[in-house]
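DNA mismatch repair protein MutS
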Amino acid sequence: MAQYFEIKAVNPGYLLFYRMGDFYELFFEDAEIASAALGIVLTKRGKHLGEDIQMCGVPIHAANDYLNKLIKLGHRVAICEQMEDPAEAKKRGSKSVVRRDVVRLVTPGTLTEDDHLDARSANYLAALAMVRHGDTDFALAWADISTGETFVSDLSADALQDEMARIAPAELLLTDAARAALTERHLFAPAWSGIATAIPAALADSEAAMPVLRAAFPADRFDPSALSRAGRAALGALVTYVGESQKGRTAPLRAPLSNAAETVMAIDAATRSSLEILQTQRGQAKGSLRHAIDLTVTAPGARLLAGRLAAPLRRADLVNERLDAVGRLVDDTLLRTRLRQDLKTAPDLARALSRLALERGGPRDLMAIGKAVSAALDLAAHLKGQPDLPRVLAGLADILDAAPRPLASELALALDDELPLLTRDGGFVRPAYDGTLDEERSLGRETRAVVAALQARLMDETDVRSLKIKHNGVLGFFVEVPAAHGQKLLEAPWREAFIHRQTLANAMRFTTTELAELEGRIARAQDAALEIELDIFARLRDAVLDLTAQLQGLADALAELDVTAALAEVSAQRGYCRPIVDDSLAFAISGGRHPVVELMVKAEGQSFVANDADLSGSEEIGGGSLWLVTGPNMGGKSTFLRQNALIAILAQMGCYVPADSAHIGVVDRLFSRVGASDDIAHGRSTFMVEMVETAAILNRATRRSLVVLDEIGRGTATFDGLSIAWAAVEALHETTGCRALFATHFHELTSLAKTLSRVANVTMKVREWEGEVVFLHEVGPGAADRSYGIQVARLAGLPEPVIARARQVLDVLEQRSAGTASSSQKASVLDDLPLFAHQPAPAPKGKDPIHEALDAVRPDEMTPLQAIEALYQLKKIRDDARRS
Ligand SMILES: Nc1ncnc2c1ncn2[C@@H]1O[C@H](COP(=O)(O)OP(=O)(O)OP(=O)(O)O)[C@@H](O)[C@H]1O
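Tokens:
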């Protein structure tokens, strides 16, 4: 156990997979954790300090599955292998222990195997560093080891959470000091706890990082001294951690791209969640924007598409370059179809390359690289003949055309059609590729013929017709005869040649020197063949790795072509239009649709109602317009709001948009908030969350931003909510001047359009038909005069008596609004339910039980039954008050 303790001690925080023969064994607490997590049996093995040693084990062949499960559950695993053959250890003395060492640390951010990864999503490891002096406080470095992509970015405290939300790393490295500082400044998001890994301060040191970075990246591609101190510290920590986890194998990290947060549209975590960009608020792919528009045909393409959706560009010229490329493929259906067909044959080059570099790759990875190179050449051939290719496509064509053809030919020649998973089993080199290998293999085959001839000869010589030459792992080759004939071979003259080895119930087994020789020859031939195959593998692998940088570039080009063709496919299939994207403050969408809701509505056989939006403004008039959207519940307000935000994202990521026409001046920051009823609050009260988020918008939005606010202020008492919403609209209009859509049930807000020049009222149209509302989902000018809340409540199944009573109350309230209610009516109802009053009622003197009861009511949190009970309770309080 001494060796175990030694290894365990240097790998704290990891479950130790301790190799013993055909099993990885876990001991003590590790065993308890793993057996509970994996549902495997916990056993005991010997004693330590008088206590039983808990143990459980996973067989080698199934270890990957178990490992996967543990990592998904948030555990970290150290893989400890036997570093020598047990026979070698024996040579040192009978008591010698087999040498063992940890060959790899497996953590959520350092995965490389396909079994562990989602093929269509990146898997980032991030490191966050903080330097208390200098211009920038924070820096984030992140890399996907499975593909080699590496980035580093300086960040202001402001941008930190947005960037983390965009990158969504699987693991975040940071020192305890950095964590404490972030927590103190309320910058450590609760969600990060689950992915945080504490690293020692020495790992995130900007000075110590220099030699690490110089060694990790080629000098001609990357100069670490150009980074900020925080950037160096973060990247240094990342590279060191990756190196330690791979135990000496070099992950093919690419020269880091300095990813300045200012080049992309800033989208904070709440906006990402509310717009359901990569996943729905419930965490599902289906229903998200990504799911709706991802028509890529390769996994690397899907990863790039997700990256682009998460980071729309902020520069109009770059957006237009992408749009030119997409446009060309929208227009040329034939070229698009051909490209997409050939792209389907291109395997995941980047991940195969990474595994080969980490000595984890097999023959199938080599084959993947060969096929990807061939596909690249085919794709280049389609593109090369095309006249006047847009810049992006021409650039891709050049990269694809330069793909290393000789490498692909060599791999195709060398590798067989059917390939084993593991290199160590051999059997992957194609016949006729290597003369010596063929010789060794034929020797093996010939020997088998010799065995057959020998069997025939021995049969003749001994006259035992049922004599057979067989093979098993214990005896090797042996002669087997039925028990009845066995005695004969035990006697002279045969006993000289036949050495007795085994007696079974009805057979006897013998070996002969001739057979032993044969055995040796076959084994030698097999070993020799395997050795040659392994040499060939190593040679091919080296040939591939020599071209790492070029192949990584090729992988990028293939992914980019897939994304471009996929976006063109979506645009063509669904009638999207090319947006005009420039540096103006325009936001004019005609015939806009919601890319996700449109699909759902159409799937149900209905048609989606397209709507216009025009928030365009200019510097001269103080910014963009703000539309106040009123209308009934279920009328389509949220859909309308979100569709405009999604159109901005699609346009700036370089995709056509679901509209008849669109003109968008680049949006620098996008904000989208949904009201209190949409359950996004955890921990804090819904109102508090709503206010914190509204504050973030008011503090951070600029004139270039697009703000989409859905029923802000609904989470509190009516007057508070109305006043906050009122002030927020004024601030957005007067101070920020951003383009904004503001949906509200506070109809009073619509009067702001009279005083604020860039505020306009629009409403979701409805038609009333026999007392029912029909939603037209159409946006038109004007303000809704009512919310149709009661009709919607009826559609939702509220009991008739409650509906009837609500109508009664509403009638009186409306009359009071219009000043036509009689004084007795006012006295009976209105003072109790001050819903739509323009002026807050004067604060009651002393304690007013009705107000107290109303203050305690939280409509958003009530079931219909509780609402009715509350209504009855209110009446009772009023009646009691009258009586007293
Ligand atoms: N333009 C449209 N065309 C067709 N159907 C639509 C359209 N807009 C919305 N819908 C349908 O109406 C449903 C309700 O829309 P939405 O959630 O946007 O309403 P809402 O006004 O925001 O309601 P609430 O105020 O209750 O949140 C959607 O789920 C969709 O099925």
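Residues 597, 601, 608-609, 631, 633-639, 777 surround adenosine-5'-triphosphate (CB under 6 Å).
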